[in-house]
């Protein structure tokens, strides 16, 4: 995993960079058929297991039954980010992190409840993963507007 670091004074649009391992159980990447679109589905902290998700559903149903003023809403277990760039950027680490104002690991980002680090805007981020041969891949993404 990439270490946390700050890069100051870049002349490009700086964003929070979220570093992740594609083998992580806490993120699922969804592609469309031609791979021109990607969704980053991140499991919200505390809902990693089916048992925890079922407990949250049960609790929401009980709260709904106890107050007829509440409409039942299915609990949300994932935070979705959508790619907003036509393709990913691939290169060595220095090329890929050029636009990073700061870096955090996926686990750190989840623990902070998806809040951006100080000095970063909230909705636009980069997702970065390390590939073979010391190459890295970066996708620009935004929070799913349907959430």
Structure description:
By secondary structure, the chain is α+β, with helices and mostly antiparallel strands. It has a domain at 15-44 and 80-143. Helix content is 18%, strand content 31%. The chain has helices spanning 50-66, 93-96, 106-111; strands at 15-19, 27-31, 38-43, 78-83, 89-91, 100-105, 124-130, 136-143. Strands 1, 2, 3, 4, 5, 6, 7 and 8 form an 8-stranded mixed β-sheet that branches. Strand 2 and strand 3 (38-43) form a beta hairpin. The longest helix is centred in the middle third of the chain and has 17 residues, at 50-66.
Strand percentage: 25-35%
Largest sheet: 8 strands, mixed
Query: What structural class results from the helix and strand content?
Result: alpha+beta
Q: What is the mean predicted local confidence, pLDDT?
A: 79
Q: Categorize the overall geometry.
A: elongated
Unreliable stretches covering 5 or more consecutive residues: 1-12
Radius of gyration: 17 Å
Share of residues in helices = 10-25%
Q: Name the helix and strand elements from N-terminus to C-terminus, one letter apiece.
A: EEEHEEHEHEE
Number of strands: 8
SSE layout and pairing:
Blueprint: E1 15-19, E2 27-31, E3 38-43, H1 50-66, E4 78-83, E5 89-91, H2 93-96, E6 100-105, H3 106-111, E7 124-130, E8 136-143
Parallel strand pairs: 1-6, 1-7
Antiparallel strand pairs: 2-3, 3-4, 4-8, 5-8, 7-8
